[in-house]
Design a protein that fits this description.
Length: 118
């Protein structure tokens, strides 16, 4: 009896799908030298020993020095964008915490005033 082939693990399947899409983009857009896509997983999967993403050019693994450094600099630009959004989020959370903290203090003072018959 022949066994039914098992589907690849989800990380392998996701990377293969990305690889297909990347090759499609590279074929349609000669201006694009290489593409890097990283995967962000739910829960503690980011710490697991699984595929992190795909980084390829038309011939496969990126090995040309100019492409390596070009990708590296583009990755740094994306990191800058991600950090900018993180800082914006931190600022919004800080403002919300300050606002809610002020409300707690005001309500506590109001309740204290009512307890003392003011």
């Amino acid at each position: 009896m022949q066994e039914t082939p098992q589907p690849p693990p989800f990380d392998v399947a996701a990377c293969e799908l990305m690889r297909e899409q990347i090759l499609h983009v590279l074929a349609k857009h000669p201006e694009v030298r290489s593409i890097s896509v990283s995967l962000d997983y739910f829960g503690n999967l980011n710490d697991a020993d699984i595929h992190r993403g795909v980084w390829i050019d038309r011939s496969g693994a990126v090995t040309a020095p100019d492409a390596i450094f070009g990708s590296l600099f583009q990755t740094l630009r994306m990191l800058d964008l991600q950090l900018h959004r993180a800082v914006e989020l931190i600022e919004a959370l800080r403002q919300a915490a300050t606002h809610f903290g002020q409300q707690v203090v005001e309500r506590a003072e109001s309740a204290t005033g009512r307890e003392h018959g003011n």
